[in-house]
Each structure stands twice: as structure tokens, then as C-alpha cells.
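Entry details:
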Amino acid sequence: MDNIKVIITDLDGTLLNKEHQISAYSQKIFKELHDKNYLIVVATGRHHLDAMPLVASLDFPIYLITSNGARIHAPNKELLFSVDIASEAIKSVLDLEIDPEFTTVLFKEEVWQTNKTNEKLNNFQKELNYPPEVVDFKKVEDFTAIKMFFTHESHAKLVDLRDQILSSNEHVFSHAFSLPHCLEFMDKAVDKSVAITKVLDRENLNFENAISFGDGYNDEKMLLATAQGFIMGNAPDSLKNKLPQLQIIDTNEFDGVAKFLAASFLGCEVLKN
């Protein structure tokens, strides 16, 4: 760990607890790490308007990677990198007449457009900084979006939908399951690990100087790229089994990331659950 200068963490299922907030204990540990000059990077699938109020509770400036790498904001909140999915690419997917039982979402710059109200999705936002807009996609003219998102109670149905979309669009999209019931599509050039490379280059650092924490398949490349990647105890078993070489730490409910960092970098006694 002596060579580590950068700490990278996902939000949902990782740094955030079950109330979708950063606990007071995690805030304290990360502030101490910042004060010791560790560079903190948050890399999330959330939109930047949604993520910013959450990371503001850390009370110090960070690099913020959002929408799985489609946006990068510097510690002073300057937008450093931005890429969208072309309108024509998204229209080609929505023209597939996707079953309305799926919740379909387009992450726009100021709002997220959706085919229906989904209370589970709405509950992810404690502050409505990034509002939903229910629309009829057949009447939308410009589909340009940061990210395209589908959710359904059945993971198997989402897998089938993924295969249907990629059968003719594999060269257009990158994709990931951020959670078993959340399927996300971005521009082909987008991935958290690609965005992290841009941040590290800007700071004259590399992946050997970084560790990362995550719980979803959208974290996979990031976890493998850094000097050490750590999987949350609450991550899907399928991810744990796919990456058996990575250490599993405590769950997000019990501040797994903060407890690991406190013991490894601050010499603190680990809190008991």
C-alpha cells in the first residue's frame, strides 16, 4: 500500500449505505484521507446532477466520474470530459418496440426522460436535483442522451433485452449491469476505467498508484485496472465468482470501504458491526 496515492470508489452499493447516503463515519474517514493528501475519485453510474449533492457531504473537493465515465468533473467542478450517445443510435433501439413492462430511461443533461413513473428509481434520489420527465418516446424528436437505461424485476428478461439490442448495435454501445436489475448503455468509448485513465494522466499518476472499490459489473474493468480492486460483500455472487482473485470486504451497510481504509491507511481499529 506504500505506493498508493489514489482511492477510487463507486457510490451505490459501495460508498452509499442503504439510505443512499454517505454515513457520518465514512465522511470522517475520507476527510482524514484527504487531509493526508490522498486523491479521492468517485466513479458512479449516476448522473452528475444526481451525484453532486451526495458527494458534497464529504466536504472537500474530489474528482467526480459520472454516467459510467461519460462525464468527468474536476475538484473545482469544471467539466473536463463529455460524450453522449447519438440520437440515431438510441432511436434505433427504441424502434425495436421494447415491451412497456420495462422502465426505459434516457439520461439527458438537465432531466431524465422515462416511459413511466418508477418509485424504486425515484427513491434513489434524496434530493430531486435531477428530475424525471414522463414522456411518450414516439413523440420525442431528439434522443441524444448521456446514457440509456432499462430496469425490470427479472434479470433474465434484461439479459434477453441486452442480447436483442447488441445483436445489431454491438459496435455502437458499451453496456453494463450496474445492479442485477439495472441495464445501462453508453457510447462505445465510455467506461469508468477509461475515465479514470484521463484523471490519472492529468495528475501524472497511473493505475499502480490507485486502489478501487465496487459492487457491480460496471465496476469490473476499474477493479481489474487498479493496483488492487476490492469487491463489496453485498456484490452479486456472479461478480465475486468471476473475479475470485479480488479481495471481498464488508458490505456497504456496515461502511465496508471506510472500515477497510481506516485500518489500512490510518491505523485505526476496525469498527465492529
Summary: The mean pLDDT is 93. The CA atoms of residues 63 and 199 lie 8 Å apart.
